[in-house]
Amino acid sequence: MPAWLNEGLAMLTVDRFMGKPTIRTDTLELLRSYTPRSSPPTYRELSRMDPKGIAYYTILGYWLVQYLEEVQPGFLKQLFASSTVSRTIEPAIVEILGFQPNTFWRGIPDRIANHYQRM
After folding, report:
1. CB 110, CB 31: distance < 8 Å
2. How sure is the predictor about 86, in pLDDT bands with cuts at 50, 70 and 90?
3. Which residues contact 35 (CB under 8 A, 6 or more apart)?
4. Would you say the pTM of this structure is higher than 0.85?
5. Which of 35, 46, 62, 111 shows the smallest number of beta carbons within 10 Å?
6. Number of helices (H), then strands (E), in the chain
7. Torsion region of 103: left, alpha or beta (phi above 0 gives left; psi -120 to 50 gives alpha)
8. CA 83 to CA 8: how far, in whole Å?
């Protein structure tokens, strides 16, 4: 499981258990401003990043999992029920959200930030 997805699921689980968000909405600004936007790092790569990079990818995981649960309820549950889940996570998410594979990680932060800043 990708690090961003693992962290996002963990934080949303804590949200539900505690009955309140673990990540503040002002973190959406980091989604808009962080560069470079690229595919999330592996756990090994993440451990060598600067604190802002670690924060960005952690926050991206949180907001992306929350966004998926809101706009495609049950999608992640269905995806995890698949026997080929480890090979299909990112392509399935890219497809269901209507992105092209080469633009997903550059475009999804703005889509998420726009979605939640309107609320």
Report:
1. yes
2. low
3. none
4. yes
5. 35
6. 7, 0
7. alpha
8. 21
